[in-house]
Amino acid sequence: MNALFVICGLGIISLIAEIANFRKWLISIIVLGLLGAAALVVADWNTAVAYYHDMLVFDNFSLAFTGLIIGSSLLWFWTASDFFEALFHKTDKSALILFAIAGGVLMTSFNNMAMLFLGIEILSISLYVLAGSRKEDLGSNEAAFKYFLMGSFATGFLLFGITLVYGATGTFQINTIANYVLTHAGELPSFFYAGALLMLIGLAFKISAVPFHFWAPDVYEGSPTAVTGFMSTVVKIAAIASFFKIFATCFSTIAPVWYTILLVIMVLTLVIANITAVYQNSVKRMLAYSSVGHVGYILLAFLADHKESDGTIFFYLAAYAVSSLAAFGALILVGGKEENTLVERFNGLFKRNPIVAVGLTIALLSLAGIPPLPGFFGKYLVFAMAINNGMIPYVIVAIVTSLIGVYYYFRVIIAMYFKDAVAEPLKVSTSKEVLIVVLILITLALGIFPDFLIQLL
Amino acid sequence: MSSAWLLYCFEAIAALSALGILFVRNVFYGALLLICCLLAIAAVFVFNHAEFVAVTQILVYAGGVLVLIVFGIMLSARHGGKPLVVSHNYLISGVLLSLSILGILIYAISKTVWPSPTALTTQEINIEKVGVHIMSDYLLPFEIAGVLLLVALIGAIAMASSKSKSV
Known about the structure:
The complex is a heterodimer of chains A (about 450) and B (about 170).
Chain A: H1 2-20, H2 26-43, E1 49-51, E2 56-58, H3 60-79, H4 81-86, H5 90-109, H6 113-131, H7 138-169, H8 174-183, H9 190-206, H10 215-222, H11 225-250, H12 255-278, H13 283-304, H14 310-335, H15 349-352, H16 354-368, H17 374-388, H18 392-418, H19 430-448, H20 451-454
Antiparallel strand pairs in A: 1-2
Chain B: H1 2-23, H2 27-47, H3 51-77, H4 91-111, H5 126-135, H6 139-160
């Protein structure tokens, strides 16, 4: 809870920075504040306190995901420092990002549907604006508008679902709903199931699972690369945490109703996202499809055992977030001012700048799931869990799609090492070089000591 | 008994004006019919002892959303000179879709066991209860809604401000 206060406070401080004229130190203040918030999360560990009439509960699940959100935001601020330097309205953007993080924290710690809704809306509205922050760029405008329309549409589904569930159970508290469903099994009105399915659709939009993913590639491609990096890490973590929380608590006992639907969504997500990614020439669009594809593996873990999969999902998301941030960070460096980076732009990157090339290689290998990187252990844990629960056919599908994934990630890697360089050496500031080394170290640490994160939950 | 007839009257007005929106070609008349429909629904809420919802309905929909729609029509009609007109392009698929939704709704409503209506024993004041809840149980959502509005405000300013003004 204190972490949430700190993050909201930082948002307000960054608004004041414009008036009180301390814009220069703003990013350092934010980074220090977020470090403080992370420390508060660690201090709250194992306490599980409910705040404000059970509106928010910071149990270990919420704290772990809050910590992951804050950690990825810190790394994101480092990778995206140019985003704040290059564009106008620096303080507005940092305020919107901070409130988006606060929305994400609400989405992991809600105990009441009202808080879930508010969290999703705070996160989404900030992102609609951030997606359109390159105003002179038509693609960015398109991304903002598409995201806004699709996001509002999804929110409509979610809200209607919440209303129907409330109508059937008479409460917004997720634990009370779970108890009600348990005690009234068999006599629930049919609109309760309709509400649960509408919420499934609304949240599937937010985690961008196929067939509700069609906004994701365009939005990811049109938004500034830094914002895309934020969307595919921090936002995805928050959305998946809220999806998990709703379906593992409220609707856990009516699993037969949504199980088959989610199974179809999972298979479609794995197959369609990974196959479409092969045909993409823009690296940003390829990463967008790959981020949709990774949702499929998380859903596979969730379907295998929706009660016990939180540790696996947490580790998978952590591994994915670090690799994804590294990939988007490299994309910002290589792309420069240009927003649409084709694979050809990575030709001979190893000769142009070996550090960036090695960092990007490790990130892509981890996303592809090559041992001993954390992406491999994430996939391994998911597959092991699925096999233990007798989902062997689906594991085979997932393995085949991850092999397809290897193909499109390696296209970039091959371009970096075996194609001739087309441009001069790429100059990168020292802070970015340090960042790449830090990201490589975190990736390797996650790969060598995966137990540390898995045993948290 | 008379209040029941009034209730049916308002329900009929809401249904007829909603139906009218389908057949009116001019978007502006459609917006006016929408106001009519929403006000009639507000009246239905009043008859069902949901005064707070009725007030919110009038404030948010009739007061806010419809003003926005009318402004939208006003600003977008400026270019053509002619009134905005809707066209029905997907008649068959639209009819099929709405009929299937109607079928689903009728099926669901007929299947659902509704709780038997009980007469209100005391005249409770709903709005007072809502206020007490907002200031006690739902204090945090109430405050966080403030953050949501702040975010929307910053976003609107960031989007609307001119790009040439460097900071």
